[in-house]
């Protein structure tokens, strides 16, 4: 449960920045009138693994060298885990303060797709920018004629 504990602490930090009072203890986030359990599926591992694979695919598709492809994979993992903390906190706030319907929306297919869509958009633009930066640098290299 290492990653779940990391997400608990990260999520609590995000909530405190937002002005809420929260505590994390052994996979349980306590806020005001309630508490939520951060389980295996909430730890961000599956999303990080998916974005590592996306980095590999993007590196191959954009014809990048192995170093840049590994960087794409690491960026995907980092972004997935960085976005997961606010997602966990949104779900905790929805569950505790907004009710079951709100939690089900954000935890269900529509809320999940909104989260994934924003994450993938940020990832895609970052990776394509990095790939284009390399091609611009290569164009600047003088050639012998």
Give Rg in angstroms.
19 Å
> What is the number of E strands?
3
Low-confidence stretches: none
Instruction: Determine the mean pLDDT.
Output: 85
Q: How many angstroms separate the termini?
A: 60 Å
The helix/strand series, from N terminus to C terminus, equals HEEEHHHH
Counted by DSSP, the helix tally is: 5
Strand content: 5-15%
User: Shape, please?
Assistant: elongated
Helix content: over 70%
Content-based structural category: mainly alpha
Q: Describe the largest sheet.
A: 3 strands, antiparallel
Strand order of the largest sheet: 1-2-3
List its salient traits.
single chain; 145 residues; mainly alpha; 3-stranded antiparallel sheet; 5 helices; 8% strand; elongated
General description of the model:
This protein is mostly helical and 145 residues long. It has 5 helices and 3 strands, in the order αβββαααα. The chain has helices spanning 2-17, 45-61, 66-98, 100-107, 109-140; strands at residues 22-25, 28-31, 34-37. A 3-stranded antiparallel sheet has the order 1-2-3. α1 packs across α3 (66-98) and α3 (66-98) packs antiparallel against α5 (109-140). The longest helix is centred in the middle third of the chain and has 33 residues, at 66-98. It is elongated, with a radius of gyration of 19 Å. The termini are far apart.
């Amino acid at each position: 449960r290492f990653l779940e504990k990391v997400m608990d602490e990260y999520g609590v930090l995000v909530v405190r920045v937002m002005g809420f009072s929260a505590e994390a203890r052994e996979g349980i986030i306590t806020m005001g009138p309630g508490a939520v359990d951060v389980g295996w599926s909430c730890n961000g591992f599956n999303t990080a693994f998916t974005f590592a694979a996306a980095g590999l695919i993007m590196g191959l598709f954009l014809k990048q060298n192995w170093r840049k492809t590994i960087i794409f994979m690491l960026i995907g993992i980092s972004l997935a885990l960085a976005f997961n903390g606010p997602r966990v906190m949104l779900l905790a706030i929805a569950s505790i303060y907004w009710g079951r319907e709100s939690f089900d929306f954000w935890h269900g297919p529509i809320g999940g797709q909104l989260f994934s869509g924003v994450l993938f958009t940020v990832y895609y633009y970052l990776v394509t920018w990095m790939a284009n930066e390399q091609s611009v640098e290569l164009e600047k290299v003088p050639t012998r004629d």
